[in-house]
Automatic annotation (TrEMBL):
It comes from the Bacteria. The keyword Acetylation does not apply. It catalyses: an aromatic L-alpha-amino acid + 2-oxoglutarate = an aromatic oxo-acid + L-glutamate. InterPro entries: Aminotrans_II_pyridoxalP_BS, Aminotransferase_I/II_large, ArAT, HisP_aminotrans, HistidinolP_aminotransfase, PyrdxlP-dep_Trfase, PyrdxlP-dep_Trfase_major, PyrdxlP-dep_Trfase_small. Coiled coil: none annotated. The modification N6-(pyridoxal phosphate)lysine is found at K218. This is Aromatic amino acid aminotransferase.
Amino acid sequence: MPRFRAILDTMPPYRAGKAVVSADGRSYKLSSNESPYEPLPSVVEAVARAAGQMHRYPDPAATGLTEALAERFGVPAEHIALGAGSVTVAQQLFETVSEPGAEVIYAWRSFEAYPLLADLAGATSVRVPLLGEGHHLEAMADAITPHTRMIFVCNPNNPTGTVVQAAELEAFLDRVPQDVLVVLDEAYHEYVRDAGVPDGVDVYRDRPNVAVLRTFSKAYGLAGLRVGYLIAAEPVASAVRKTTVPFAVNQLAQVAAIASLAAEEELLERVEVVVKERDRVRGALVAQGWTVPATEANFVWLRLNERTLDFAEACAAEGVAVRPFAGEGVRVSIGEPEANDTFLAVAAAFPRG
Ligand SMILES: *Cc1c(COP(=O)(O)O)cnc(C)c1O
């Protein structure tokens, strides 16, 4: 048998949200924080036109998309790096800083991909427990050592939906050495309505050790096509571009992302509807007697501890797929009203404990 890296034996597999069906055939996928909307016709048309050229390699530099993003955010094109989903860009970030002994700090619980990517890159994970349901930035700063190379701040945090405020982020960044990269993972930025939450694209402008991660998968509804990006000072963006596998972002994804930026107003109207639904769902849960952290993302978090899997099972019986983290809690995406109402009915019937 071939010999593999020992780390592979200890790595938990990434568990993607899976579909469930009720006895009477209903199925709602609230497990992956996807957009509940089908793609816009203008985006589908752009992809369909590009499909006729799929025998050709994509533009390796993704020039059109890079320029569209540079214009959208008012940043130089050299400050942008693209990947097949922002999780790939995150993987590339790990590759740019990791070597034996390198430490990467992140909150826990946070995005499930971080420990996986750290293990794969050969970096050492330093997990700092959440304070309540949010980042404990002071403890994260305290965890910095001479070996620290990178820190992830997921804002809003997946899976708790909590946010870091501008003032606390700035105080934290002031404590981080210049040679440590801070990655603001803003996969859910478009859903944020709290005016105190920083926009990473403003933060990075004064801070050469700050990188912003964004994605087309959530608010822009392109999860199936895989395209995400990083915005950071030139040395950071250029290091990430060096780790890109040639032709990583396929042509249909490039075209769809450009068309989505062109249709941004329409897409952000949809986001606004999801935000209203989110507030309705959280309000209903609180009225039912649940403790639900304030959420600025397109999901809610229920800390169910040892009853987590029972709750997920109760949801599955009604055809609602949620994301359980055994022993901790359940993350439930905001979907179409019918899906949300079905979930709320399960929550209403489940003992509060
Ligand atoms: C969904 C998500 C991503 C990225 O997803 P991609 O589809 O790879 O762009 C990144 N970070 C967090 C925290 C997420 O929840």
